[in-house]
Design brief:
The protein has 383 residues and is of the alpha+beta class. The chain is built from 12 helices and 5 strands. The chain has a 5-stranded mixed sheet, sandwiched between helices. α3 runs parallel beside α5 and α9 packs across α10. The longest helix has 38 residues.
Length: 383
Amino acid sequence: MALDVESLLVVNAANLFVMAATLPLIMGHQLSKAAASARNSLLVQALGVLAIVVSGLWSSQWANHLTSALAVALLALGHWQMFCALEGWLGPRRGGLLLKSTIVLAPLGYLLLSQSFPNRTAWANLMMILQMLLLAQATLWPATRLGGRWRWVIFGCSVAMALFTGARTVLGVFFSDQYTNFLAPHPVNVVSMLAANVALVLAAVATLVAWREEAEAQLRDQAYTDALTDLANRHGWSERAPVLFDQARRHSHPLALIMLDLDHFKRINDTQGHETGDQVLQRVSQVLRENRRTSDLAARLGGEEFAVLLPQTSQEAALLFEQRLRQALYSAGQSQPLLAVDYSAGLAMLAPFDGNITALMARADSALYQAKALGRGRLEIAP
């Protein structure tokens, strides 16, 4: 049985619509931004493929050109949505602005070159190749600790479709008598449509795997993150702090630990209510996040007790960090007096006799209790 391009396009559009409708049923209706972008990509591409089919039904040449230009714009928008999904899963990607610009440039160039089939076909296909290659590189660079083998599936599908689109470009430019429109029954066109259907299924599977990885990462974050302050909780601290401690010991790097406890926090809860107390904790965590480096580990260990681990930090630098922290918290209290709070702190530097992170924490805790005994609102350094 002979395969015709129009039937393959209809099947492609039907598959895209079905997958776009099915994804929320599989993933749930509370889709993440990345998963929603992936779903939107399928839906918009389905509309683009449908527009290609409809373009061949018009008797008017301009109606055909306008519908085809709409199809080109929709396909570019679909690729942009997939790029947004990759950014949601993998972090910021390069080439987003260029890809977004093709949503306008691709249909505009197609209309301007509409009087020449080889030229408008070459333009549309070259834009498509650019989009596919930008998607392919977005799966790999910049490098990220997230992203499993599903990235390679999307990479392979994007590169394969770029190659097939390149073959159709050559066909439209140099053999335009055999490729007169999008639905031309040339073997290259038929194989390209078959490849598009296969790539669609593989990309959909990769999307589901990416969503599962995202869901697992969210569960890990919830297990290691304090819900109120968005800092590491005690479990997260227990996972990451020993790693930083061992690295500092192994490479003989300085390591500073500051344990801090909010002064008279129980009084705030008793006199102003637990809601105000929660706001105070959130304010402290915000100040910690704004003043720490990406390599630093800040955690809420419980109640009003916090800890900050500062890798490759001398005692002088740790003291400067603590001064910035106290000043920032004081300034925040000036703007909102109800949330004003001070703290006592203990600083311990990694010493040769510290066998593990627990020993370092014990010395910082001892300095913290000394700061409380000496009147609170101050920092003491462990000997």
